[in-house]
Amino acid sequence: MNRNEEISQNLNAVSERVMRAAEIAERDPGDITLVVVSKNFPVSDAQVLYDLGVRHLGENRDQEGALKSEQLPADTIWHFQGEIQGRKIKSIASWADCIHSLDSLDHARKFDGAEHLSSSGTGRNKEFFVQVNLEPQRVDRGGVPIAELDEFLHILFSETRLAPIGLMTVAPQNMEPTKAFSKLQELRDDRVTKYPSLAGLSMGMSGDFEAAILCGATHIRVGSSILGSRGLAV
């Protein structure tokens, strides 16, 4: 089996699993965005995905995302989901259409002042998810602590032009995924009336995306189930 066939087979398998999970949840599969995480894999794999109809690709590193985004067609939608470094914000803003890992007001203000806030050069409006840390004892984990979320959102919406489209989390290893995803859904539901744009939920990866769909995920971030576990040079 060649690489094209391998990726195609894996993508079809994941798509079928998404369909089944959506059916169980009585949801429209069209409301779920599959972001294929192409980090550590070559641009040739990203091109294969594009040729198979994938338009949403995820990257964790600015340099890798910037390089790949230059080589794929302009209608590719790029998602940045890695840890944000302040000095990289201008570059991230130049190519990423959607940032999933916003957890700092300082970073938010820098994005707000970035030259490419309104669009990434494709004319698409830039979108943001606020990352939430569900492990209060783990200060080393990315994300806004739940206890600080309301203040974070208040400042974000009142003092910047950013209007996040939802909340994002990574399920803690010591927590049942369904419990983690239900918690994020609850946090969103409690705040979406006050902040109507905050309707999305970015949650679920290769090992738990079906549980995320059952809990209302609008964006799932799947890498190894489609591209494999072997990281390759760009």
How do the helices and strands line up, and which of them pair or pack?
Layout: H1 3-24, E1 33-37, H2 43-51, E2 56-59, H3 62-71, E3 77-80, H4 89-95, E4 98-102, H5 105-113, E5 127-133, E6 144-145, H6 149-159, E7 166-168, H7 177-189, E8 200-202, H8 209-214, E9 219-222, H9 224-227
Parallel strand pairs: 1-2, 1-9, 2-3, 3-4, 4-5, 5-6, 5-7, 7-8
How would a textbook summarize the main sheet?
Answer: 9 strands, parallel
The name of the CATH topology is: TIM Barrel
**Overall strand count:** 9
**What is the CATH C level class, in words?**
Alpha Beta
Assigned CATH architecture = Alpha-Beta Barrel
CATH-wise, what's the superfamily?
Answer: Alanine racemase
Which band does the percent of strand residues land in? 15-25%
Residue-averaged pLDDT: 93
For the record, give the distance between the C-alpha atoms at the N and C termini, rounded to a whole number.
Answer: 22 Å
- Write the H/E string, N to C: HEHEHEHEHEEHEHEHEH
The best one-word shape is globular
Unreliable sequence segments:
none
Structural class: alpha/beta
- Domains (count): 1
- Portion in helices: 25-40%
